[in-house]
Write a structure and sequence with these properties.
Radius of gyration: 18 Å
Structural class: mainly alpha
Largest sheet: 2 strands, antiparallel
Number of helices: 4
Helix content: 40-55%
Order of helices and strands: EEHHHH
Number of strands: 2
Strand order of the largest sheet: 1-2
């Protein structure tokens, strides 16, 4: 797959070598993941979005919001809209989201620390 990026006075053609997740994206099924292309199984740079409730929200409310959001994500029209944007719907449980959040915070905190990244 090739994409074109237009600049002010030039046109550059890029070839996508790999996608940043651990698995191929349904939006670009012909593009291998980093794990497939380079054997980099520990790298996962997929972007994800989530709905969070304020700390201290009653568990029953969190569970209801979770059920409703998962139902919305299963609607074909929502899947179509998100798919056109290159996004995949997964849904899940509050516990899975908490684990994903903790894992990514730890991963990216380590990257920032190890690379000595400082805010401007």
């Amino acid at each position: 797959m090739s994409i074109c990026i237009c600049g002010c006075q030039f046109l550059t053609k890029l070839n996508i070598l790999a996608a940043g997740g651990t698995q191929r994206s349904s939006a670009t099924p012909k593009i291998p993941s980093l794990a497939e292309a380079a054997g980099l199984r520990e790298i996962d740079t997929d972007i994800w979005y989530a709905l969070y409730a304020p700390a201290g929200t009653a568990k029953e409310i969190v569970q209801k919001l979770n059920r409703e959001m998962n139902a919305v994500l299963k609607l074909p029209e929502i899947g179509d809209i998100l798919s056109k944007q290159g996004l995949q719907t997964t849904g899940g449980t509050p516990e899975q989201l908490e684990q994903l959040t903790r894992t990514d915070l730890e991963r990216w905190s380590n990257v920032v620390r190890d690379a000595k990244i400082q805010p401007d």
